[in-house]
């Protein structure tokens, strides 16, 4: 297995083989949590108008450059999603729109053989899936801030996944120390923006709470995020 390390939106566009799109703060921490809260389906969409076309039928979750989107139900905050509880999501379709993670996944789908969505919360499951599928090339894409600037949380999550694939050691305590001191974490501490709750980083830095890799797949006019059976690989 050859592992390529890439960053931000240009990295997602360049990803080949199996692309692992990493967005710790916060898109792909939210995605596993939505499934744990019994969402029936999760759609990934960048176009706000298309998202709003499903308003009422689906729960709309997301942001544009971190800020809430008018007409959406929730920002992509793990804390606010968990606080909403399963009654908000159980049995419903959720549409997720984010500036970094979702945009990166949609870009990668154009040329990669397959696209997985990852964060610390499902990193081990993602690595297990990659081993099971026997991919010859894996592109670990750390999406960074706004898809433009590398961010410590995504780069260190890439380190963790690479270590699980046999690519060296990883120290999560050192990673936490670096991440919490980084600009991408500090923006949560001011507590002056309710859509950036201070609790989010603590949730996002939890490891391996979700037992499934999540694959992004085109289905008709939409892209769906689908949890994969444990131990499975990419189907022929």
Automatic annotation (TrEMBL):
Keyword hit for Secreted: no
E.C. no: 3.1.3.71
UniProt keyword ATP-binding present: no
Classification via InterPro entries: ComB-like (IPR005238), ComB-like_sf (IPR036702)
Catalytic activity: (2R)-O-phospho-3-sulfolactate + H2O = (2R)-3-sulfolactate + phosphate
Cofactor needs: Mg(2+)
Record-given protein name: 2-phosphosulfolactate phosphatase
């Amino acid at each position: 297995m050859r592992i390529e390390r890439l960053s931000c939106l240009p990295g997602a566009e360049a990803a080949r083989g199996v692309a692992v799109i990493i967005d710790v703060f916060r898109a792909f921490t939210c995605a596993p949590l939505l499934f744990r809260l019994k969402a029936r389906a999760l759609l990934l969409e960048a176009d706000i108008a298309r998202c709003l076309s499903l308003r009422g039928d689906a729960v709309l979750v997301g942001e544009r450059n971190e800020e809430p989107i008018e007409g959406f139900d929730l920002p992509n905050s793990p804390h606010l999603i968990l606080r909403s509880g399963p009654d908000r999501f159980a049995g419903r379709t959720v549409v997720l729109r984010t500036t970094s993670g979702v945009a990166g996944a949609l870009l990668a789908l154009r040329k990669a053989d397959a696209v997985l969505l990852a964060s610390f919360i499902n990193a081990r499951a993602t690595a297990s899936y990659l081993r099971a599928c026997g991919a010859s090339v894996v592109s670990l894409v750390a999406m960074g801030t706004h898809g433009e600037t590398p961010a410590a949380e995504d780069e260190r999550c890439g380190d963790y996944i690479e270590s699980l694939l046999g690519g060296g050691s990883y120290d999560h305590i050192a990673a936490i120390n670096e991440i919490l001191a980084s600009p991408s974490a500090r923006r949560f501490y001011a507590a002056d923006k309710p859509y950036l709750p201070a609790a989010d980083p603590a949730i996002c830095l939890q490891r391996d709470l979700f037992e499934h890799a999540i694959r992004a797949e085109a289905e008709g006019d939409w892209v769906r995020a689908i949890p994969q059976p444990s131990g499975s690989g990419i189907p022929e």
